[in-house]
Amino acid sequence: MAVFQLLLGLGANALLILSVFLFIAFLLYCLYIKYMHMKYDHIPGPPRDSFIFGHSATLSRIMKSGGNVHEKFLEWSETYGPVYRINGLHLVTVCVTCPEATKEILMSPKYPKDKFVYNRLFGLFGRRFFGLGLITAQNHELWYKQRRIMDPAFSSLYLRGLMGIFNERAEKLMDKLTEFADNKTEANMLHLLNCVTLDVIAKVAFGMDLDLLQKSSPFPKAIELCLKGMVYYARDLFFEYNPKNRRFVKDVREACDLLRTTGAQVIQKRKTAMQNGEDVPKDILTQIIKTAATEENMTKEDEEFMLDNFVTFFIAGQETTANQLGFCVMALGRHPEILEKVRKEVDDVIGMKQDISYDDLGKLVYLSQVLKETLRIYPTAPGTSRQIEEDMVIDGVHIPGGISCMLKLTFDSYVTGRMERFFKDPLKFDPDRFHPDAPKPYYCYYPFALGPRSCLGQNFAQMEAKVVMAKLLQRFDFTLVPGQTFDIQDTGTLRPKSGVICYIKHRK
After folding, report:
1. Which SS3 state, helix, strand or coil, does residue 498 take?
2. Annotated binding residue at 256?
3. DSSP symbol at 281
């Protein structure tokens, strides 16, 4: 502002000089965009909406109308092939569905996560958000150090010890569903599942008793705001500068502050208790602090990483699992023959038992198939992206190496999971695709990503999902309330748009 006041004081000549300077800068930027077009336009792709903004207008329209951008990516993949290009300003995105390239790039540590996307997840509208936690760390050494600290907290031996909490929190959901069954009222299953999965991750990971099915809490709303803000912040560079979005941006910042402040308090309280020799829960936070203490050269930044990972697990540890369970209930409600088959398996394995054991989970084979098929059609975290610094050829298409973060390769499991090329009759919900004797999908099914950067908590999530679904199938009949949509809501993660509204009845 002071610069403009000075220029105004200097008079018309200064304004003329400034205008010429801005025009030259704009012209040079347009030349740079033209250079990027010339470099990558040999790659197939849809016509651009505009020279400068590329395909941004198309994607923005879909977002503003509440649509699912991954459906557009699927359409473009079917039209332009396994390698196609999207433009936005000077940035180029190459979308890849070729299994061989998926294997080579995602399974190797030499291709870092895309700087543009994951830098945008570092913070939200000026607030540190995921920071440099496990999801967003791009430097391999930085990521590997954190992964080494986290691994013991997700070992199979440790996860076995969590079955008691999984059962306890799932029982609270069953008690809540009993109220809906007795009162003959409609149940918003997605909301209830969000409550139970957040209860689980809060208790299992951080020793927090939220009891969201009985008590109100600011955390669910804060998480919803952060996820919604994350989508706009990552996909719309100009969103925060629009005056009509100021209130929303302020709310997102406050939500982000709440999560990080809570995380700092929980971590400090636990560390103090451990230093004083007090009894502490044997949860994931304790494991992380103990393991971190054995690391050499722990720095203040490492402490910040622990807070980054608090936010990461607090959000990712509940959001994607709740959405998977919601989609699973929705799919079973639409396919009564599959519902009956999986219910019979639960009856055979679990019977009338209240507590489900770790060994029981391994016997629920068809339920595993149902959950996997759910993630094929409805992957809750559908995409990941990588950078390439050197030229490479994918499916016969030459991809020039990127300059800084101007080029990224994206891999979308929503797209590959719905392509006839990989799955016959792809929109049919068919758990037998994942029968133990069925051929395994070849690098076209990756709901938890692949390789060294695959989701650390995937076994945790699927154990939790099995316990919740097994208890639900054991105790209740559910039918979908007529008239609701089965559309998908894109909030960065994918979730059932209508919330999966059900009538609940006690099983006879």
Report:
1. coil
2. no
3. -
Written as six digits, the tokens of 497 are 């748009």
Count Cβ atoms below 10 Å from residue 305 Cβ, excluding itself.
23
Residue 298 pLDDT > 70, yes or no? no
State how far the Cα of 154 lies from the Cα of 316, in Å rounded to an integer. Answer: 15
Query: What domains are defined for the chain?
Result: 25-506 (1.10.630.10)
Q: What is the DSSP letter of 54?
A: B
Q: Cα separation of 76 and 414, whole Å? A: 13
Chain centroid to CA 117? 13
Amino acid in the structure at residue 364: L
Model confidence over 373-415: pLDDT tens digits? 999 999 998 988 888 888 899 999 999 886 555 778 899 999 9
Q: How far is CA 178 from CA 212, 412, 477, in A?
A: 16, 39, 11
Q: What is the DSSP string of 56-98?
A: HHHHHHHHHTT--HHHHHHHHHHHH-SEEEEEETTEEEEEE--
Beta bridge partner(s), residue 505: 477
Q: pLDDT category, 295, cuts 50, 70, 90?
A: low
Over 163-224, what HEC string results? HHHHHHHHHHHHHHHHHHHHHCCCEEHHHHHHHHHHHHHHHHHHCCCCCCCCCCCCHHHHHH
Quote the pTM value. Answer: 0.90
Convert the pLDDT of each residue in 418-462 to its tens digit.
999 999 999 999 999 999 999 988 999 999 998 888 888 899 999
In the predicted model, is pLDDT for residue 5 greater than 60?
A: no
More confident site: 211 or 417: 417
**Quick check: 321 and 461 in contact, CB under 8 A?**
yes
Residue 64, judged by CB atoms within 10 A of its CB (0-12, 13-18, 19+), counts as exposed
Nearest Cα to Cα of residue 333 among 207, 172, 499: 499
Give residue for tokens 């999560």.
259
Angle ∠(195,196,198) on CA atoms, nearest 5: 65
pLDDT of amino acid 7: 47
Across the range 107-116, mean pLDDT stands at: 84
Return the SS3 of 214. Answer: coil
Question: CA gyration radius for the chain?
Answer: 25
CB-based burial of residue 201 (10 Å sphere; 0-12 exposed, 13-18 middle, 19+ buried)?
buried
Q: State whether residue 459 is helix, strand or coil.
A: helix
pLDDT (mean) for 67-80: 94
CB 414 within 8 A of CB 383: yes
Residues 6+ apart with CB under 8 A from 177: 187, 192, 472, 475, 476, 504
Residue type for position 450: L
CB environment 142-170: b (16+ within 10 A), e (fewer): ebebbbebbeebbeeebbeebbebbbebb
